[in-house]
Amino acid sequence: MAVTSGERVRRAAVKLFAAKGFHGTGIRDLAQEAQLSSASLYHYMGTKEDLLAGIMRDSLGRLLTGAERAVAGVTDPAERMGRLVALHVITHARRPEETKVVDDEVRVLSSGARRAVVELRDAYERLWGETIEAGLRAGAFHTPRPEVTRKALLEMCGGVARWYSARGALSLDELAGHYAVLALRALGAREPLAAPDLDVCRAVVASVWGPA
Amino acid sequence: MAVTSGERVRRAAVKLFAAKGFHGTGIRDLAQEAQLSSASLYHYMGTKEDLLAGIMRDSLGRLLTGAERAVAGVTDPAERMGRLVALHVITHARRPEETKVVDDEVRVLSSGARRAVVELRDAYERLWGETIEAGLRAGAFHTPRPEVTRKALLEMCGGVARWYSARGALSLDELAGHYAVLALRALGAREPLAAPDLDVCRAVVASVWGPA
DNA sequence: CGCACTCTATCGATCGATCGATCGGGTGGT
DNA sequence: ACCACCCGATCGATCGATCGATAGAGTGCG
Fold first, then answer.
1. Which of A94, B92, B113, B182 could be bridged to B109 by S-S, CB 3.0 to 4.6 A?
2. Whole domain around residue B25: which residue ranges?
3. Are B118 and B143 within one domain?
4. Domain HTH tetR-type spans what residues (chains A, B) (predicted)?
5. pLDDT at B5 > cutoff 90
6. CB atoms < 10 A from the CB of B2, how many?
7. Using CA atoms, how far apart are residues B70 and B89, in angstroms rounded to an integer?
């Protein structure tokens, strides 16, 4: 059994939720994509919303653990920041569907599941915020209103999922490196900018999401 | 007659599409919000999709004319870029609902209406792209892969609609000025950075969308 | 003026289709 | 004999959309 039915359901949901949105995806669409009857779906997914919540918790969890692993033990603020950016960008480029679902469908979650997802996202953003603050204290960064800069950079990097195509001319490393430059420049880091360790970031993404 | 029924329908659609998405908003939701029966809706909106398409065309059109007005006659690339950023940010901060609908619901449009919207968006992005290219040629900007930088900056600035609140501590001018700095730094503009003419940008937004 | 007619704006009722979800009944491996 | 897995049939609710009808504000004519 190469791919289990449960796995097919999960993949169908990620694909369709990303492409048509939660409310735009019907139970029968999911069943067809997963090659199952609509009744059999319920053996795996609970409700449709449970399925969405599971995807979001899982994807956000992987993003968060990935970020923690990528910066573990790194003290230099610029290197930390560069790695956070690269990990974020690589994740969004390699898994645009999961990240689109996470970014666009929070609003459909009812309050219970919403709280868990928002908590994960806040923990993730806190990693960015603390790194920026540390860089400011160390004199490595220079930006007023660091919270605004954090929001801006997160939106910038997350946008990758909306336009990057793996079939394009740009490699993952070029993409991630370029975004790291943009972010560090925006933060007012001193030139010349050192590129973050992309090998580590790529490896962390592979350890969290599986090999490419 | 202070506000016509047609106007109420339009406003209800903008509000609900932004908050719950196109597929998450029912005809009966629209009717209740617009204080009309669901049957009367059809006197004004054509189909539900026509209503969405109209909102998107109108909002994108205003953004595009605003941008053209804001940079008309301006030759200095940094000033042009700063104005484009400021106009974009101010628009997204002042009309988060319209811009959210434009940014998030393109996928539900059927091919006919989709084409018109995508064409408008491409024309808008071309304005950014040409300004960046001009800045590179003039030696005012220094960035590899300007198309990637353009995408990144557009996503960064558009993200404002997802988090900015007019009730927060940040004024529109501070917000727009801050984003202009971030964008110009990312583009590798020479410090010290001159702030764009925010008065003009604010006035243009008011001329296109009405006074605040 | 008064009457017939038209047009806009609105409604309650209802259409066929589709929604998410459930039920009871298989089938096949252990 | 059990249990995980899967399905056809079907549920009540809701979907987007349309129906025929009405109230009221004009409009043209004798």
1. B113
2. 1-46
3. yes
4. 3-63
5. no
6. 4
7. 13
Helix then strand count (H, E) for chain B reads 11, 0
- Give the mutation candidate from A88, A102, A155 for the B interface (greatest B CB count, under 10 A): A155
A117 touches strand D (CB under 7 A): no
Q: CATH number of the domain at B13, please.
A: 1.10.10.60
Please enumerate in sequence order all residues whose Cβ is within 8 A of that of B192, keeping only pairs 6 or more positions apart, or say none.
Answer: none
Nearest-by-CA chain B residue for A152? B156
Asked if B159 and A163 come within 8 Å (Cβ–Cβ), the reply is no
Mean pLDDT of A31-56: 96
pLDDT tens digits for A82-121?
999 999 999 999 999 999 999 999 999 988 899 999 999 9
Helix and strand element counts for chain A (H, E): 11, 0
Do B125 and B145 belong together in one domain?
yes
Residue A196 Cα to chain centre, angstroms: 18
Chain C bases near protein Cβ (<7 Å): 9-14, 18-24
Are residue A103 and residue A42 in the same domain, yes or no?
no
